Amino acid sequence: MRHDESAPPTPHRPSLPAAAVLTVLCLGLAGCGADGGGTAQAQPGKGGDTAPSSAAASTPAATASPSPSRTGPSPSKRPTAPAASGPLSGRTVVIDPGHNPDNHLHTAEINRQVDIGTTHKECDTTGTSTNSGYAEARFTLDVSHRLRTLLQAQGAKVLLTYDDDRPFGPCVDERARIGNKAGADAVVSVHADGSAAGNRGFHVILPASVRGGGADTSKIVGPSRELGTRIAGLFVRATGSAPSNYIGGNTGLDTRKDLGGLNLSTVPKVFIECGNMRDPKDAALLTSAGWRQKAAQGIADGISSYLNG
Ligand code: ZN
User: How far apart are CA 123 and CA 168, in angstroms?
Assistant: First the structure.
């Protein structure tokens, strides 16, 4: 069954204000989210977890007044949703957690060729994992949740292209379309690499200038470079990790023209490979919740710096 893009956001929307409030409370206590104990766990569920308590609290009063007012209370709750405020208020950020942990169960679907403008490519790939079996797709979703919390705390509207809410994918072309349709001010696709042991460090992947079919990156090459440069610089500061020693000549930046997620984007977008899962030292970082929080912070700082000019 094909999932419609309009379906996933609906159940998540009510949980956003509550998540933002929790974040603010947590950020008020220095370092309380450092090991992920507070922030990331505020929203691990399927999004419906915040609604029941407030709904239940209002029902006793409703029993006195029968039918007509029944539809009244729920819309009236809407104004209680706190308006997003902060330096990123009014900005939209799309986070794209690379891969899907169950892609390997759907090889036919993810091997389907999709049009990426310049050529055709697989819908998605399985992603890599550490030698001990920690999947890249689990890493990307965890960092994305942490990143979402940090950005929402600054008032940004944040959408995820995928949130453990479908059996496989989405395909790379759909991942790009989600950012485009949202009119995102910035999109970051979160990944970790699977290279040879000894290859270490992170790198940010920028869109090359490409044109063909539905792909035309001419308008996003410049802003995406700016976005990527800021993320790279602030990722170093937040994590202490060095730029890749095997790609990008120690700049932490690489440019590619073969990624559908970049080629089809019409809004500023970069990928980040946070480290190399197949290197034992990098894997020790990637499997640490504390380090993932730092990684999310570095990416958030980069996005924030870019959006604030
Ligand atoms: Zn990846």
Answer: 10
Q: Which residues of 158-183 are buried (b: 16+ CB within 10 A; e: fewer)?
A: bbbbbbbeeebbbbbbbbbbbbeebe
Contact call for residues 192 and 134 (beta carbons, < 8 A):
no
CA of 36 to the centre of ligand 1 (A): 22
Q: Is 273 an annotated catalytic residue?
A: yes
Residues 299 and 236: their CA atoms lie apart, in Å, by: 10
Find, among 245, 298, 304, 299, the residue nearest to 270 by Cα: 299
What is the Å distance from ligand 1's center to 127 Cα?
5
177 alpha carbon to ligand 1 midpoint, in Å? 18
pLDDT in tens, 50-78: 333 333 333 333 333 333 333 333 334 44
Mean pLDDT value of segment 215-228: 98
CA–CA distance, 19 with 33 (Å, rounded to integer):
13
Query: Ligand 1: distance of its center to the CA of 137 in Å?
Result: 8
Write out the CATH class of domain 88-307. Answer: alpha beta
Q: What pTM, to 2 d.p., does this model score?
A: 0.74
Element (H, E) at 186: strand 186-193
Q: pLDDT tens digits for 86-141?
A: 999 999 999 999 999 999 999 999 999 999 999 999 999 999 999 999 999 999 99
| 146 close to 303: Cβ distance less than 8 angstroms | no
Residue 85, pLDDT score: 87
Between the alpha carbon of residue 286 and those of residues 128, 205, 226, the distances in Å are: 12, 19, 26
Domain ranges of the chain: 88-307
Q: How far apart are CA 109 and CA 1, in angstroms?
A: 11
Nearest to 95 by CA among 18, 31, 162: 162
Of the residues 5, 122, 226, 273, only one is catalytic, namely 273
Lowest-pLDDT choice from 7-16, 33-42, 183-192, 221-230:
33-42
